[in-house]
Specification:
With 385 residues, the chain is α/β, with parallel strands linked by helices. It is built from 14 helices and 12 strands. It has helices spanning 4-27, 51-65, 67-72, 85-91, 97-104, 129-136, 188-204, 222-234, 247-253, 270-283, 310-314, 324-336, 340-356, 371-384; strands at residues 40-45, 75-79, 108-111, 141-148, 153-160, 173-174, 180-181, 209-214, 241-246, 265-268, 291-295, 300-304. Helix 2 packs parallel to helix 14. The termini are far apart. The structure holds 3-isopropylmalic acid (IPM) and magnesium ion.
């Protein structure tokens, strides 16, 4: 509980922390060049619940595709096993210091889902490991593709990943007269870099349209700035049409079968991106089928968009977990570090195993195949391509 004086002090300290963050952002160099590295280190964090099962499977497939690169020493895998809820709770930290140091010694990270504590559950109410990792490694772009080829849907979401409601999501407070406050942050530098990445992607991938999604009519300072700066960046790309939408109508338009195939690239603040990408993933078969890339200039992390499914573990069904989300994340990882040919082969195999051939299916229980059997099926399919 804060009185008005201590509340003002807290608010001042939060603003100072954001000024430091902006300064650090400005001091950063350009994107890392993987090709010039003597070795690319891929860190593998299993996480919680079904995380270790599906992450291990994706690692097996990655090792299979990168056999030659591992043999030559160009690529190395490193296990990081301290990112479990038990270890995080024991240290009272979203990411314990030694685990953070291990993460920072890698170039890219393949990460399984981690349990996010919430008030009232068995864990201390520490910050989400995802959110902490995105902040610590400055992974400012959350790139989430969604495809439903038979409906013509081919969307790529650029969710701002380090600002908005998430930056100070654990820093809100309540005053003694019952006023609770949270904060949402939009910075000039933070908005420009996500907008540039979205438009660059659109240009390189021959997309003709970028849609900016906000609630700028109501959230005027932060969403208003996000919209305005994205539009300004868009002016540097005269071949790309920019349109803008409010999040409520965009949520509706995604279920409009007559209109939704027209969308291509979306750029949006953190919380709207979180919500709408779950909705979008549902059209391609659910969150279990969707991978996600968290991209920064020095680091990148690839993960599933769903949670750790502790119930599956409790019910003894972890071995039947679906690895497809992590395999899609593996595709994005391969492509990001420059192995596009391997990424394309994995995509082709996954499309065959998940949609066209479907010789085996994962159902999450013993009515379907196990996670390992599905991984084997994917590798057999790659061999047969
Ligand atoms: C996601 C997840 C996370 C988020 C949670 C687990 C903190 O929902 O990656 O979309 O809200 O960003
Ligand atoms: Mg989410």
């Amino acid at each position: 509980m804060e009185n008005i004086v201590s509340a003002k002090e807290k608010f001042g300290a939060l603003l100072e922390s954001q000024r430091r963050r902006v300064a650090a952002m400005r001091a950063q160099g350009d994107f890392i060049d993987y090709a010039s590295l003597p070795q690319i280190v891929i860190g593998v964090c299993g996480g919680d619940g079904i995380g270790p099962t599906i992450t291990h499977e994706a690692e097996r497939v990655l090792r299979f595709l990168l056999k030659d690169e591992v043999a030559s020493g160009k690529v190395a895998f490193r296990e990081i096993d301290g990112l479990t809820i038990e270890n995080r709770a024991a240290h009272g930290k979203a990411i314990p210091d030694d685990v953070l140091a291990e993460l920072k010694a890698c170039h890219v990270i393949l990460k399984g889902p981690t349990t996010t504590p919430r008030a009232g559950d068995e864990w201390p109410n520490i910050e989400s490991a995802n959110v902490a990792m995105r902040k610590e490694l400055d992974l400012f772009a959350n790139v989430r593709p969604v495809k439903v080829p038979e409906e013509g849907i081919d969307w790529t979401f650029f969710r701002e990943n380090t600002e908005g409601a998430y930056t100070l999501g654990s820093c809100g407070f309540e005053t003694e007269d019952g006023i609770s406050v949270d904060f949402t942050i939009t910075t000039t530098d933070g908005t420009q870099r996500i907008a540039e990445l979205a438009y660059d992607f659109a240009q390189k991938n021959h997309k003709s349209r970028v849609s900016i999604v906000t609630k700028a009519n109501i959230i005027k300072a932060t969403d208003g700035k996000f919209l305005r700066l994205c539009q300004e960046v868009g002016k540097n790309y005269p071949d790309i049409v920019t349109d803008d939408w409010y999040i409520d109508i965009m949520t509706a338009k995604l279920v409009d079968q007559k209109r939704r195939a027209e969308f291509q690239v979306f750029v949006l603040p953190n919380l709207y991106g979180d919500i709408i990408t779950d909705e979008a993933a549902e059209f391609q078969g659910g969150v279990g089928t969707a991978g996600s890339g968290n991209i920064g200039k020095r680091y990148a992390m690839f993960e599933a968009i769903h949670g750790s499914a502790p119930r599956m573990v409790k019910e003894g069904r972890a071995q039947y977990a679906d690895p497809c989300s992590m395999l899609r994340a593996a595709v994005m990882l391969l492509s990001h570090i420059g192995y596009q040919e391997q990424a394309d082969r994995l995509t082709e195999a996954l499309d065959k195993c998940m949609f066209t051939e479907k010789a085996l299916t994962v159902t999450g229980r013993d009515t379907g195949c196990t996670c390992t059997e599905f991984g084997n099926y994917v590798m057999r399919t790659i061999e047969g391509l």
